[in-house]
Amino acid sequence: MRELYFVHISLGSNVGDRFKNLQKAVDAIYTQIGDVVSLSTVYQTPAWGFSSDDFYNACISIKSFYTTEEILRRLLKIEEQLGRIRTDASGYEPRTIDLDIIFSSEIIQSSDTLTVPHPAMQDRKFVLQPLSEIAAEYEHPKLKYTVAELLERTIDDAVITPVQQQLQNPKQQYNLSQYQYLTIEGNIGAGKTSLSTIISQEYNAKLVLERFADNPFLPKFYEDRERYAFPLEMSFLADRYRQLNDDISQYDLFKDFIVSDYDVFKSLIFASVTLHEEEYTLYKKLFDIMYKDMVKPSLYVYMYQNTERLLQNIKKRGRAYEQRIPADYLDKINQGYLQFIKTQQMLNVKIVDISEKDFIANREDYIWLLEQILE
Fold this sequence. Notes:
Strands 1, 2, 3, 4, 5 and 8 form a 6-stranded antiparallel beta sheet that branches. It is elongated, with a radius of gyration of 25 Å. It is of the alpha/beta class. The protein contains 12 helices and 13 strands. Helices cover about 40% and strands about 15% of the residues. It has 2 domains: about 5-165, 7,8-Dihydro-6-hydroxymethylpterin-pyrophosphokinase HPPK (Alpha-Beta Plaits, 2-Layer Sandwich); about 175-375, Rossmann fold, CATH 3.40.50.300.
């Protein structure tokens, strides 16, 4: 997984439908940049530094895989999308939308295009008031005062007034919590663990990950499949059965739902590919006994990727014992999953082809994937 950055952004508008402009900006930030973690009240504030109509201002905090510089580039693009036209005139001008980075977890940034923390934030009440609602104890890395303290000390005496309308978090429209138990499945290298982790972070879900790294037979299996296939599949089955039973049965009052990067049925899929016929017959007898009483996912999502992309992903993540996986083995696993899905009349299944998508590198691909899951 890439590094996650935490950023505070100030929003302002004094042209057209000011509140609608702010909401559109929040929606665009969510779909194009990152998860919206918190939103402040919207305030009506006098124009600062020039004579014009009053502004609507607010602050939000976000988490994003993009660097602060990349976030700035995307914010400028959103401003353009929402109709802001920058001119060569000196001084301040009315604007449909104004998006400024105030703080970043990268702490201090200084370049030709970006200065973080924002160099004038301490003198602007229209920034400090909404920011204090969502980051009161955040300390300015240069001034060494918290946001709450900066608000008390500011020389800006402007009168700002809260408005009744409240900004909505756009992720509410992607209601994944309707699935009490969501399973994300896929072939080796499809990205199921990455997606499950992102969903758990953004949607307050209990995360259940397969403990494949702890399996002592896995590296040996890739060296000698004939010898280690049966003990590998048996150990996976025992571990998956125990872990899923434990994690799913332990309800977490502080989480909204469960998301897992595997289902125990994958044991049967892999076993059908790796085991000889007589071994598989024995294995399936044991599996059927264990599987019949297990809780089934509310939604089973299978992320399909073509074999070429799977091999690229496997190479990129660099696990030494995976580098010798042949293409035909991945093909067989894919076919095994698809055959399993065809036979599951009682299972709520969604197949999503992500072969042309990169939901980690591109936020828009991640949003597209959420839409496919919920469609």
